[in-house]
Amino acid sequence: MGELAADKHVKYILAVEKRKDNFESAVLEHLRMNGAYWGLTTLDLLGKLDAVDSNEIIEWILKCQHESGGFAGNVGHDPHILYTLSAIQVLALFDKLNVLDVDKVSTYIAGLQNEDGSFSGDIWGEVDTRFSYIAICGLSILKCLDKINVERAVNYIISCRNVDGGFGCTPGGESHAGQIFCCVAALAITGALHYVDKDLLGWWLCERQVKSGGLNGRPEKLPDVCYSWWVLSSLTMIDRVHWISKEKLIKFILNCQDTENGGISDRPDDAVDIFHTYFGVAGLSLLEYPGVKAVDPAYALPVDVVDRIFFSK
Amino acid sequence: MHGRPRKPLKPVDEAAVAAKAEKLRALQSEFLSNHQNKIYSKEAVELSAKLLEINPELYTAWNYRKLAVQQNLAQCESDPESVNSILNEELKVVENALRQNFKSYGAWHHRKWVLEKGHSSMDKELGLLDKFQAMDARNFHAWNYRRFVAALMKRSDEDELEHTQNMIDKNLSNYSAWHNRSVLLSNLMKKAAPGFTNKDEVLTREYELVREALFTDEDDQSGWFYHLWLLDQTVRSEFPLLVSSWPVEGSDISLPAADYLDGCASMNVFHYSSRNFPLVLYFNQYVRGVNSSTVSVSCGFNLNADLIWRPLSSNDSQSAKVWATHLAIPDAELHSSEAYQVEVKVGFSLGIVSTTGVAYSHPSQISFQLHLQKAPLESGQDSRFGRIQWKDDCFAVYEPGSVEPDLVNLLDNLTIKNEVESTASTWQARIIDDETNIFRDLLDCKIGKLTVARLLTSYNSLRPLDKPVHCKEVLELYSELMKLDPSHYRYYKDNHSLVLLQQVTSSKESLLSRCFHYRDSTLSTNGGPLCLRLNNLAISQLGSFEKLLWVQMLDLSNNELQSIEGLEALQLLSQLCLSNNKFRSFTALESLRCLKSLKVLDISQNEIGSHSIDTTRYLFHSPLSHSVGSCDWNINYLSSKTYWEAFFVLKDMGLTQLDVAGNAITSQSFNVFLEKLLPTLKWLDGVEVN
């Protein structure tokens, strides 16, 4: 409690990157691409991206690319839109998007759009608004948003809007902070935030803050550091972040740190992991915590990385 | 990881764990090899089942199994017993996986994939769902799967609604059940299913049902959002209607001839260019289709066909609550000193429609008089003001009778009378009344106070022509909530501000008490523009714009505003003070781009440049949100991208006076940038510009 143990978290992330002999890394081997994004973005937000060998990482990323253009979670696994975005995001961090065959990747993503505007995660057809966000975010970073039918994509997202102002994974699905982040960010990137009732959703989101100061993901659930990202970024994009107590949330996040060994956990005194370390630090960034770079709430990348993509000549 | 306690590993444990990891790695490696080589032997497929039982998140294994199933189905040549056996095996693997992790997306999707083949029995699925929902009634995967199964089985919405009732009866604290109920009920009401056509009956039933949820545990949120939805369904106006307009019905306006208007000169209460006279229509909801076919403007001279109506909103969707156009009176007409009777007929032709698809079917007519005045100003009097200073001693209290009586008449007629509202059914008011009385029993807790505040506010919204009642009580309730629930202080504060503004704008007397003449020392007579001063009110959010369309000079200084969303409706605005507020970025000021008459802007003493996070970044037109055409965005104009937000807000504004001091962004280079961007600028931070 008290302060952000930035150095410890950096050490923790670097150690996890190298450790391959524990059970956890075996079980999570299939989503290493996500892990790379979480770990490396955290390093960048803490100003320590140069602590890793970018060439080694980029080499590995390209080995995960499938002939279809999509990326897998790790070498030998199947391609999926989830890992394709993480690959794009990591390359953006390193300012190495030019190693991509942009046409190939964007065609893979665009090919996953369905008639009704929704997106499948891969050729096996699971539909979820998470994938709508991923497609829109990924293609936007690659400057290829016009490869999809944006109007239909937006219409599908709106069809997943609920009476409480939130969004679910498919039409009729319950509002959940993670889905809300995906839908709000997708609408933000496509200039369609006017479809969000900011006051209604803002109230639903701000009531995620419970007495301990942490945020839960939906009513009557336990608080969890990862919601410091999903809820907070959503509130930030609709300009309602002032409806929660920033001080109390900062305290909650700091309390979830393992200040001895580094890393952040979902709740105080639980086991730490890269996922929650990233969301804790990103949450602190949105709360303007000193020493943490500003993060873009829609692209989930540092603001300077996003600005570099969109404002360079 | 979720819910795993943090503890250091003992050395003995570490070795065991390493061995376990190596074993898993070996299995995964073997599996991946089978997958690469398309090996679907019995052993290979069993290996994948074993892996999925350990790790249901291994998505490639689910893909592999689908490929194996496809191959095996092809080989068994549609023999129903074999098909069933193959598919049942998959269902078993899914069940085992779900037992490990019943939140596994891969497992649930695999089950759907199997069922979609159409060979499996559906009866078992509902039973399985009941089992899962008994274990965790909030598992959204299970609820989604239920929706999937119900569709496949063609179960009726009524039956599914009953299921939500059963879940709620078991446990009121089940947000998922309330949510699903809202989906089914919306559907049943939309298709006007039997038993769901009488809104009064349906809503009354639902209010009774959800009441218990709110009263049983005052901190349990499960019913809160459902109740709020019921409230919205109760008071939402069915019909798109015109709420207010500029000019106001029956007003009498003096229009100075073009030559005599520049800068801030004014001899009259209302001043604007005869080349650019705004007409504003304010509706009660977002509408489309306002154009010269659906709105006819007749004057002594014909100009209707050329009128272009624009939606005043921050988006490009061609829908808005506020629409505006500008009359350009031809020079040929400026010589006569006649009065022109102008008639604006709204919606006499079909075409205006709400975004929810309801046609505008209550046409209105607004009539007003225009007097052209070409008398020049008295000689010896400077036709322009010096710099506007927003100091108390520059403002003199408005004296009734000292200016044209039009202001008073105008303020009497701000709200348009709509027949359909005055004959609105009473069931809405009755429900609100009943609910208010019931919730007064809950006033000692947060949800009780909040609900009563909302109910009282809703009551006022049902009667737009009457003066709002209970404002004082509502303001008190929000003040109490600010103390009771300090984490959400700003939520209550913003709502408090909205009610405060409703109160201030609710009567002619209240508005007049806030109207002041601006008095410049260079002017001897009482001719300054009329300023509405809403400063020092501690307001954090703006509202009631429909009551303020007539405002030309507005003082909002010394408040707690961070957004001016909605201000774009005030098309007459030419002088605006936003100093000493909480504006954090130029992106928060985008509404100003719609204010073509704005000449004087004070945004000094704010927080622009102090924040690393821009909360209006995506509510603003920029390449980040793909809402700027490529021709609008000329990055080369800027020497650096440092001031891109300021560039985009200010670039087409004809400001003559700008104050930005007291913001972190200000610097010598910023001032140079501003002077270059705004060639019409005469004063910057009080200093004359060359």
Automatic annotation (TrEMBL), chain A:
Belongs to the protein prenyltransferase subunit beta family. Its EC number is 2.5.1.60. Catalyzes the transfer of a geranylgeranyl moiety from geranylgeranyl diphosphate to both cysteines of proteins with the C-terminal sequence -XXCC, -XCXC and -CCXX. Required for male fertility and root tip growth. One of its GO terms (cellular component) is Rab-protein geranylgeranyltransferase complex. Heterotrimer composed of the alpha subunit RGTA, the beta subunit RGTB and REP; within this trimer, RGTA and RGTB form the catalytic component, while REP mediates peptide substrate binding. One of its GO terms (biological process) is gametophyte development. Residues 4-300 form the Prenyltransferase alpha-alpha toroid domain. Its cofactor is Zn(2+). Binds 1 zinc ion per subunit. This is Geranylgeranyl transferase type-2 subunit beta. It holds the Pfam family Prenyltrans. Gene3D superfamilies: 1.50.10.20. GO terms for molecular function: metal ion binding; Rab geranylgeranyltransferase activity. InterPro entries: PGGT1B-like (IPR045089), Prenyltrans (IPR001330), Ptb1 (IPR026873), Terpenoid_cyclase/PrenylTrfase (IPR008930). It catalyses: geranylgeranyl diphosphate + L-cysteinyl-[protein] = S-geranylgeranyl-L-cysteinyl-[protein] + diphosphate. It comes from the Eukaryota. Keywords: Metal-binding, Prenyltransferase, Repeat, Transferase, Zinc.
Automatic annotation (TrEMBL), chain B:
GO terms for biological process: prenylation. Catalyzes the transfer of a geranyl-geranyl moiety from geranyl-geranyl pyrophosphate to cysteines occuring in specific C-terminal amino acid sequences. This is Geranylgeranyl transferase type-2 subunit alpha. GO terms for cellular component: Rab-protein geranylgeranyltransferase complex. The lineage of its organism: Eukaryota, Viridiplantae, Streptophyta, Embryophyta, Tracheophyta. It catalyses: geranylgeranyl diphosphate + L-cysteinyl-[protein] = S-geranylgeranyl-L-cysteinyl-[protein] + diphosphate. Keywords: Prenyltransferase, Repeat, Transferase. Its EC number is 2.5.1.60. Coiled coil: none annotated. It comes from Linum trigynum. It is an enzyme of class 2 (transferase).
